[in-house]
Amino acid sequence: MKYDFNDPSITVALVGAGGFIGSHLLEAILERTQWRIFAVDLDFHKVQQHLQNHRIEFLCEDLEEPSVLKKISSYPIVIQLAAICTPSRYNTETQKVIESNFLTPAALAKACADSGSWLLYFSTSEVYGKTSSEALLLEEDQSDFVYGSIHASRWSYAIAKQLSERYIASLVHLSWTILRPFNFIGPRMDFVSGLDGEGIPRVLASFCGALVKNEAMKLVDGGKAQRSFTSIHDAIRFIFLVLEKPHLSKQEVFNIGNPDNEISIRELSFLMQKIHAEITHKNPKEYKSPIEVSGTNYYGKGYEDSLRRVPSIQKSQKLLGYLPTEPLEKTLKESILWFIDHYTPIIENQETQR
Ligand code: NAD
Ligand code: UDP
What we know:
This protein is 39% helix and 14% strand. It is an alpha/beta fold. Residues 87, 126, 183, 202-203, 206, 218-220, 223, 225, 227, 265, 305 line the site of uridine-5'-diphosphate (UDP).
């Protein structure tokens, strides 16, 4: 069955619509389709400018509520993004992380199997686990998963997601697609600690926060880990390919990534400082040097890291015709500009109130 983007009678349930990916996807669905959106999230700040749109019904409620689950699964397409997915919480709120990334998605998957909805489930590239610096390209249907010991609670999220994947794939009556994002980046990611949130956001927001607050970036374990960053715009294009080609994407697992955007976290910190200096014309000597911190001190006991994580995109190229086009520097520039525009007035406001 195909879903016509111009059919206004189709409603898609977007769960986690108020988050980083959800807010971009909500805008893209409004722009590129005639569909209606049943949006669910505990937070609406990133999408509040759209809440008056007659094509959106926004429910600010917990997905764990059985009545909310039931309503979500009454729609033909369910995109499930809602989750606790910030690494700083994996070893400090382990039970909640497992419930959020296994128990809740499992209940939603069961409801979708009963109702006949197609579930697009956002898993994670973390399912590939504790990859070493020699790691090969990670393949959806070939690579093995290695996790740390039970005391290394960092892996609670990865294991919960992996179990959700297996549970989803076990439901014989469910139409599903599993998506594994590789470090998406772009405007509106996470928060800046002390300005609109508390704690440690993911690395792009953490480094952008340090730049706008003129603080030192923190390099975990020397910043030796490597990541392959994916522009949110490439990611959204990917999701549309999945929606456009259900006959090829149902009952499949896909990486969403860009192997060309691989960089170490240390190099990332210097590159972001360079781009920030070009945008603001600030003297490079005025930046505070990055500070090295141990993972255990920064995130707490139980933190371990994945040292290298590069996606194979062969399967998505072959099946869906996906090719990422957004280079790292361009996405970093767009993100840093957004963080400057969004947070400078908040910082100035805080300063005048002191
Ligand atoms: P995000 O934290 O920005 O968004 C998640 C949203 O889910 C938040 O707005 C939160 O309020 C909402 N939420 C959480 N629990 C909820 C509940 N019980 N009921 C209702 N709403 C709830 O995260 P994101 O970056 O947009 O990621 C979305 C999904 O993609 C997650 O499942 C995550 O595991 C997965 N993912 C993302 C990345 C990435 O690079 N952004 C990487 C790997 C996996
Ligand atoms: N990291 C860092 N400083 C920060 C935040 C993160 O050095 O302020 C590192 C982290 O230890 C990891 C990488 O950056 O090696 C990516 O972290 P992120 O939290 O973005 O997500 P992950 O890919 O680990 O899920």
